[in-house]
Amino acid sequence: MYDKYIIPVLVAGSILIPMFLFFVTTFIVISKNRQRKSELEKKEIELQYERQILKATLEVQEKGLNQLSQEIHDNIGQVLTSVQANLITFLNSNNFDAKTLIEATKNQVTTALRDLRNVSHVLNSKYVNRIGLEESIEKELAYLGAYNAINFSANSNCELENLPADKELMVFRIAQEALTNIVKHAQATKVTIDLSQNDHDFLMTIADNGIGFTFENESAKGIGLITMQQRAELMNGSLQIISNQDSGTRLVLTIPIHE
Predict the structure, then answer these.
(1) Measuring CA to CA, which residue among 194, 201, 126 is closest to residue 161?
(2) For residue 97, which of 108, 86, 107 has the smallest C-alpha distance?
(3) How far is Cα 35 from Cα 40, in angstroms, rounded to an integer?
(4) DSSP per residue over 101-150, as a string?
(5) Are 253 and 204 in contact (CB under 8 A)?
(6) Which are the contacts of 203, defined by CB distance < 8 A and separation ≥ 6?
(7) How many domains is the chain partitioned into structurally?
């Protein structure tokens, strides 16, 4: 009785099983293609981001070299020029107080050597990592304060937990960039850096009482601001900048401590 169903079942099975295998295979191929496409798109996004980081890094390096050149020319160069003038006077004239001139020249040379050490220290990542973030910031403020009519101060309202060396260096470079912008553009008379942390985050706040600034859109941001934000993102953090003409500019960097 069941024999008459065997042949139709076998025929149906011989048709349905290949169809099922075909659909399963097609589904697997489509899924694999979608996954491959998604991975390629992800890699392309990562590649574009890495290109942007590289471009920003190269531009920052070039800017840093220009700043170094300017520092040497404006500060150390002027001091050494004065030393040279004193020595020429010493050699060519008999009507001067030799002791006073030599003492002044000695002080100028001391100043030039101090400035050279400061420049080399803040540019050297190993030195920054060795002395730590707080001391590096204090040295930077002392150096800037010696040549600018700005009252710089740094505060730490708690015992800071040490950040990893790479994060400390990036935080310091963000502070350097912010301070450079303030000195050049803000027309400020007071700058304060506050370092603090809670159970989850490290925070650095840099505030000035300058004229503030505005930008209409993202494309209007300078390379310095873009680089600071990229460094914050690399630490899985955030960078908030609030600026207006009445109260100056306030920069708040927030980065997670434990990651």
Answers:
(1) 201
(2) 86
(3) 9
(4) HHHHHHHHHHHHHHHHHHHHHHH-HHHHHHH-HHHHHHHHHHHHHHHSS-
(5) yes
(6) 194, 195, 196, 197, 252, 253, 254
(7) 2
Q: Give the pair of three-digit tokens for residue 247.
A: 């109260």
0.85 surpassed by pTM = no
Q: Residue 92: is its pLDDT beyond 70?
A: no
Query: Exposed, middle or buried, 222 (CB in 10 Å: 0-12/13-18/19+)?
Result: middle
Kindly state whether residues 214 and 161 are assigned to the same domain: yes
What's the one-letter identity of residue 4?
A: K
Report how far residue 214's alpha carbon sits from residue 41's, in angstroms, rounded to the nearest whole number: 35
**Same-domain status, 157 and 258:** yes
pLDDT tens per residue, range 172-197: 889 988 998 898 889 999 999 999 98
Query: Do 247 and 160 fall within a single domain?
Result: yes
The domain of 155 spans 148-259
> Rounded to an integer, what distance in angstroms lies between the CA atom of residue 131 and that of residue 239?
25
Residue whose entry in the numeric block shows the structure tokens 């008459």: 4
